[in-house]
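Entry for the shared binder. Reason: the reviewer on the internal report wants the predicted structure included alongside the sequence.
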Amino acid sequence: MEHLAKVIGVIHIAAAISLLNGLLTTFGQSRIGVQAIESIARQPEAADDIRTAMFVSLAMAETSGIYGLLIAIIMLFANPLVDILVSLL
């Protein structure tokens, strides 16, 4: 049972690291927005192209955050490695 406690502890640390992806995604999205606003202010005639690129970039950044959350949920609640370890003990 000592091994199981160690594995679960490592799983919790890994889930916390994957959730940091969501925090860092927030900063990345704010940077995308700021750069898009600055670009539109410099070249108002290119606003449509800049806005389109901004929305595509925001969607990709948000997807990264969602993947981090999904990985954390799988590691915490549906981790097959814990089942394998329990069957070996």
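Summary line for the report: The radius of gyration is 20 Å.
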